[in-house]
């Protein structure tokens, strides 16, 4: 039996803006992707909160969640994640309470502590609340209380939100997030698609130190990875040059829209930039169905992964949809 047989598979979307497109043209493409993902058996479709990045249009995350949930029927839609220190817990509870009221049993609330942007923009978002990152564990507890019926006699209530079953996930890329998710007995999603350094250590710690809670009786670990699947390994490698260019912009600070693929990355980066990009992209699955399946089976077995979330930055929309379809076939 394949180790992938009982593994759920999901999508992380940044509403990535391609060169030549606008955010207005990007959002319908995300919806079309989510609708196809629903047909293909993907479990979740999450958006990530980022700010001040011209290639990422998912800054108003909860609005996009509502847009996609309204255009689909069964797939779970949520945040991967909401950067909680950027928001008051009450506002998050009201927004996601509204979403969960509109789309019952379909909304996930993934929470991270990073700003999702540079420090100057984080200051603009948080203002005097710039040190809110230190309140992250306490703010999760505030959210849990606001969602609970125990809060009905409080002077501050989340309406809608109170009494609704909205799964809360801890997201992260470090040991701090692993410890927090294990201690609170919550599902844990690791950002291995761009921060591989502590992935193995965090996965092992979370699984071994998990404390059962009223939310979850056993650990549930999701890994987010980069995925590009095509008819040949060569075609997949060519398509993957777009995500490599995107990450090159991250490490050089020269951000751009998602660029078309190139036939030779050596014309784009130098040796040191290549090392930086490839280290960030360590957990990437690029190739044919067979190539990706073999690598993914080993990955899931080694790290005891319960769910795989794929993120794909492919320039051509049809190639992107095809990659998602081929990836889904690996699990079926």
UniProtKB/TrEMBL annotation:
<dbReference type="InterPro" id="IPR036661">
    <property type="entry name" value="Luciferase-like_sf"/>
</dbReference>
<dbReference type="Pfam" id="PF00296">
    <property type="entry name" value="Bac_luciferase"/>
</dbReference>
<feature type="domain" description="Luciferase-like">
    <location>
        <begin position="10"/>
        <end position="296"/>
    </location>
</feature>
<dbReference type="InterPro" id="IPR011251">
    <property type="entry name" value="Luciferase-like_dom"/>
</dbReference>
<dbReference type="GO" id="GO:0016705">
    <property type="term" value="F:oxidoreductase activity, acting on paired donors, with incorporation or reduction of molecular oxygen"/>
</dbReference>
<comment type="similarity">
    <text>To bacterial alkanal monooxygenase alpha and beta chains.</text>
</comment>
<protein>
    <recommendedName>
        <fullName>Luciferase-like monooxygenase</fullName>
    </recommendedName>
</protein>
<dbReference type="InterPro" id="IPR050766">
    <property type="entry name" value="Bact_Lucif_Oxidored"/>
</dbReference>
<dbReference type="InterPro" id="IPR019949">
    <property type="entry name" value="CmoO-like"/>
</dbReference>
<dbReference type="GO" id="GO:0005829">
    <property type="term" value="C:cytosol"/>
</dbReference>
């Amino acid at each position: 039996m394949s180790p992938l047989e009982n593994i759920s598979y999901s999508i992380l979307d940044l509403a990535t803006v391609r060169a030549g497109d606008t955010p207005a043209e990007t959002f319908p493409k995300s919806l079309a992707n989510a609708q196809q993902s629903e047909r293909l058996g993907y479990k979740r479709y999450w958006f990530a909160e980022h700010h001040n990045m011209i290639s990422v249009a998912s800054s108003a995350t909860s609005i996009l969640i509502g847009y996609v949930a309204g255009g689909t029927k069964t797939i779970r839609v949520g945040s991967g994640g909401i950067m909680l220190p950027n928001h008051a817990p009450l506002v998050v509870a009201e927004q996601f309470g509204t979403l969960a009221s509109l789309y019952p049993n379909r909304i996930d609330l993934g929470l991270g502590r990073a700003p999702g942007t540079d420090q100057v923009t984080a200051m603009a978002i948080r203002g005097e609340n710039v040190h809110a990152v230190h309140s992250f564990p306490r703010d999760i507890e505030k959210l849990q209380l606001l969602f609970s019926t125990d809060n009905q006699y409080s002077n501050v209530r989340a309406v809608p939100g109170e009494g609704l079953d909205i799964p809360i996930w801890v997201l992260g890329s470090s040991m701090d997030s692993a410890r927090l998710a294990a201690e609170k007995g919550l599902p844990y999603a690791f950002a291995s698609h761009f921060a591989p350094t502590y992935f193995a250590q965090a996965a092992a710690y979370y699984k071994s130190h998990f404390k059962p809670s009223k939310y979850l009786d056993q650990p549930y670990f999701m890994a987010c990875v980069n995925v590009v699947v095509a008819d040949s390994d060569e075609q997949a490698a060519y398509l993957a040059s777009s995500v490599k260019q995107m990450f090159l912009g991250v490490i050089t600070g020269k951000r751009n829209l998602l660029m078309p693929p190139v036939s030779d990355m050596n014309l784009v980066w130098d040796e040191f930039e290549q090392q930086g990009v490839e280290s960030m992209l360590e957990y990437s699955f690029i190739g044919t169905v067979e190539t990706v399946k073999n690598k993914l089976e080993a990955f899931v077995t080694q790290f005891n992964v319960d769910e795989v979330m794929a993120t794909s930055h492919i320039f051509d929309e049809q190639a992107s949809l095809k990659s998602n379809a081929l990836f889904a076939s690996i699990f079926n």
